[in-house]
From TrEMBL:
Coiled-coil portions: none
Pfam families (UniProt xref): NeuB, SAF
Name of the protein in question: N-acetylneuraminate synthase
Gene3D superfamilies registered for this protein in UniProt: Aldolase class I (3.20.20.70), Antifreeze-like/N-acetylneuraminic acid synthase C-terminal domain (3.90.1210.10)
Signal peptide location: none
UniProt-listed InterPro entries: AFP_Neu5c_C_sf (IPR036732), Aldolase_TIM (IPR013785), PseI-like (IPR051690), PseI/NeuA/B-like_N (IPR013132), Pseudaminic_synth_PseI (IPR020030), SAF (IPR013974), SAF_AFP_Neu5Ac (IPR006190), SAF_PseI/NeuA/NeuB (IPR057736)
All residue ranges annotated as the AFP-like domain in the record: 297-352
GO molecular function: N-acylneuraminate-9-phosphate synthase activity
NCBIfam families: PseI (TIGR03586)
Organism of provenance: Pseudonocardia sediminis
One GO BP annotation of this record: carbohydrate biosynthetic process
């Protein structure tokens, strides 16, 4: 039976009990080349990820070309230090004319293509492409009119919560629902690039699920896959990671992005984590049947004749099972065998 709070994105169920919905974020890793962007989509298709996500903006729809202190990233930022916002977004944006061929290529591979729109005209573009869902980026969580506009499309929404207070998340969720969104996934997120594992605070995942009654996943910017896999143990049903072809190629997000083989490992190991999260259980499982037969028990370890004493030389605790319990050794020592017994026979009460 499907979980009642699972939602549908494309043809995929996203919720408890389902395979983690892995979203491969291209972001600016196309490095200004449509051919490279298409190659990234092709690479994602071979990993087991279910979705590829873009970001839909132009530099002048997300900011303005200004050079005051507020429009520059602090100088000591590890990736983008000293960069002007407009120049950074001009470099990182995915040209709007690329969206259609990228969506088409993704669909040819069976991937679900969708995007983060950063203004109403971006929503219009994505509507024309029949985007499967909308993603709310962490910094846009406070743009309630934009969220209502996404909600009004009636499509599922995936909402990152980096930096947000519980009150801000509540306002955003309310805006999405007021707009008309009935299917929503929240993503716990640390909006630092890259993020440190100690800042992941994965217990936020069950807290969000409890607070809002919706499926919850993780948007992860840490290095590697460890944090993302661990999130599944906390109930994450979706995982978003940035993806590139090769980190050595450089790019605005390459430093904390996964390469295709790492994305494949994430898909494989996150599903293994899901399968491992069964209920508490004690006692042997069916899969342990063969090993259960190897438990130690008392065996006759030397040929004996009737009337011979049971000693530590002819009866021992060994593998496999089948003989008397090992703790009965003190009871049987000194008794006599009732008949001849061959070495390798399990010791039973009728033999002594």
């Amino acid at each position: 039976m499907r979980s009642p709070d699972a939602i549908t994105i494309g043809e995929h169920r996203v919720g408890p009990g389902e395979r983690p919905f892995v979203i491969a974020e291209m972001s600016g890793n196309h490095n200004g080349s449509l051919d490279r962007a298409l190659e990234i989509v092709d690479a994602i298709a071979g990993t087991g990820a279910q979705a590829v996500k873009l970001q839909t903006y132009r530099a002048d729809t997300i900011t303005i070309d200004a050079d005051g202190p507020a429009f520059r990233i602090r100088d000591d930022h590890g990736l983008w230090g000293g960069r002007n916002l407009y120049q950074l977004y001009e470099q990182a944006h995915t040209p709007w004319e690329w969206h259609e061929p990228l969506f088409t290529r993704a669909r040819e591979h069976g991937l679900v293509p969708f995007s983060s729109p950063f203004d109403p005209t971006a929503i219009d573009l994505l509507e024309s492409l029949d985007a499967a869902a909308y993603k709310v980026a962490s910094a846009e969580l406070v743009d309630l009119p934009l969220i209502r506009r996404m909600g009004a499309t009636g499509r599922p929404m995936v909402m990152s919560t980096g930096m947000a207070t519980l009150g801000e998340i509540d306002a955003a969720v309310t805006a999405a629902r007021d707009g008309g969104c009935s299917e929503l996934v929240l993503l716990a997120c640390t909006a630092s690039y890259p993020a440190e594992p100690q800042d992941a605070n994965l217990q936020t995942i069950p807290a969000l699920r409890e607070a809002f009654g919706v499926p919850v996943g993780l948007s992860d910017h840490t290095y590697g896959i460890g944090v993302a896999v661990a999130s599944v143990a906390m109930g994450a049903v979706a995982i978003e990671k940035h993806v590139t072809l090769r980190r050595e190629d450089g790019g605005v997000d390459s430093d904390f992005s996964l390469e295709p083989d790492e994305l494949a490992a994430l898909c494989r190991e996150s599903d293994a984590a899901r399968l491992a999260m069964g209920p508490a259980r004690f006692g042997p499982r069916e899969s342990e049947r063969d090993t259960l037969a190897l438990r130690r028990s008392l065996f006759v370890v030397a040929d004996v004749t009737a009337g011979e004493k049971v000693t530590e030389a002819n009866v021992r605790s060994i593998r496999p099972a089948g003989g008397l319990a090992t703790d009965t050794i003190g009871t049987v020592l000194g008794r006599t065998f009732t008949r001849d017994v061959e070495r390798g026979t399990p010791l039973t009460w009728d033999l002594i």
